[in-house]
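Handout, page 2. Input:
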Amino acid sequence: MNLRLELLGPPVIQINEEAVNLPRRRSRALLYYLAAAGAPQSRDHLIALLWPNLDEPRARHAFRSTLYQLRRTGLPIEADRETVHFSAHAKVWVDVTVFRQGVARLCAPTDPVVTGPMALAQLTELAALYRGEFLEGFYLNSLNYEEWLYLEREHWRGAYLDVLERLIEAQIEAGHYLQALNTAQQALATDPLQERFHRAAMRLLAWLGQRTEALTQYERCVQILRDKLGTAPLDETEALHRAILEGKVVPPIGTPGAGGPAGERWPAPGCPSPFVGQRSGHWVLSEVLARAESDPTPVVMITGEPGVGKTRLVQEVLAASPVITIWGTAHP
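Output:
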């Protein structure tokens, strides 16, 4: 038996690719909780969660009846004297489990999927799992269950936004600026109070040559924060706004195209050949230079083995910057 449960968005239940309809709300609530937990759950805990207002005999009777209804529908749920769990013989696919495992894999420093094209593909797949709010549209007349629902929704919304932030970084690393902008706007549609995504959209719009739109994005951020929270943007957002006004926000590598990989990279003026890699370092140095007028104190040290492109990285950044530069060489 293959059981598929989608909890990120309107819930979906399928057995062997066929939709399953569970008319009783508490039957669905129990199934969703077991799927989200990903581990056996104690009977007492489930009874307290689903029937907090019933006395113990009635609550236990309702629990047994709910288990019977789930098994009768064909769901692979087993129970012993202490716990309830999915059958070990069934293949159970749950989107939150896949999401959780994917994030854990991306956090493993030795995994090859952490960086490069594989990371971009993995992050794109993870983001696609989030179809909407956790158990969107579902509720239960139980204070305990509703509290759990609230916490889970906050957790998965935050996890999704963190994935989108990493996806934006990966898209920028690959030179896909327009895709990164779309991802930033997708994040803001989920939570418009997240300044990190307003800044990402502002920066990407400026890189794409859409200065007016970048400034409009800033104004939108100001208005949302004022209307919803009664606060002003962070200093980091204000600094980026000033840099855009002064024309100091330039893309890491020339000016990107509008879509995918093709045509999105070409060298900045003065550089004889395309520059590939080092985008993260390029971004950091560009931001330091953009803030040089208001904050002239930063010192940046670039280290690495000979031939990895340290000098070329600096040349690329300075070729696209109006800052006057003094070069020097130190000899031991």
